Amino acid sequence: MGLGSSELDVQGCISEAVDRTVSHLDYRPIETGSYRVCFTPEAFLSLLGAFSSMFNARSVLDGVSLSQRDSIGSDVAVPFFNLHDDGLHPGHISAAAFDGEGTPTRRLSLIEGGTLRNFLHSEATARAFGVQPTGHAGLGAKVSVGPDWFVVGSNPQVSSGNSLNHRTESGPFVLIEDLSALHAGVKATQGSFSLPFDGWLVNNGERVSVEAATVAGDIRSVLNGIAHLEADSEITHRGVSPHVWVDGLSITGEA
After folding, report:
1. Residue 59: domain span
2. Residue 165 class from Cβ within 10 Å (0-12 exposed, 13-18 middle, 19+ buried)?
3. Exposed, middle or buried, 57 (CB in 10 Å: 0-12/13-18/19+)?
């Protein structure tokens, strides 16, 4: 797939940058409490990536994953949630036909209908589990295992029962655009996170930029607390995802 400046919507980028900048000019504090949250695609993929050890067979074998060897087949998310790793997705500019060990890259179902279906494997972890390698090995000082390109989507056979849209909902809800300090605010082996964020409080149709706040929770509660996945997905540098709505997340405002 060829990508270049000719494919770039320059005017669209300018308009989006201006709109975001203007919307953040008026910061206000937010009250501490439990909120319905809408994650932008970029923010949700950032959070999911921080807990990718859930799907990493090497992490499972090393005892540093939320998942266990027998976790395949267990319910880990709401039944309308699907997650794939697709290193060959046409939107993935770093796509490669093979991983570091020469195993072909392919689309792999990680969560289907809320159920954990597969782990990411190298040749060594695949032997340990008695399965085939999945094409997720990287070569360095030692062989590593990691995701290529997450694709978040809905299970077409199950409805969320909601029709939420971040553009039209009057609120109240918190729209999280960007998460910070992922290196420090995530405890991947425990599942917990507490992260500063940039975003807005939307209430009665008014969108106000949030000043100095953090969002906290547990990734298992997030996956099981998803209220809705919007219909339109966006390609980001982390993968593909729609806006994702999650109920009952803790927001801590400035003291």
Report:
1. 49-154
2. middle
3. buried
Q: Which of 154, 188, 222 is the last residue of a domain?
A: 154
> Is residue 177 domain-resident?
yes
Grouping H, G, I as helix, E, B as strand and the rest as coil, residue 38 is strand
Gyration radius from the chain CA atoms: 19
**The whole model's pTM is what?**
0.90
Token couple for 20: 């975001």
Helix, strand, or coil (residue 52): helix
- Domain match, 200 and 220 both: yes
* Count of structural domains, the chain: 2
In single-letter form, the type of residue at position 13 comes to C
Domain edge (last residue) among 129, 154, 179: 154
Distance in angstroms (rounded) separating the CA atoms of residues 174 and 64: 32
Write out pLDDT tens, residues 26-56.
678 999 999 999 999 999 999 999 999 999 9
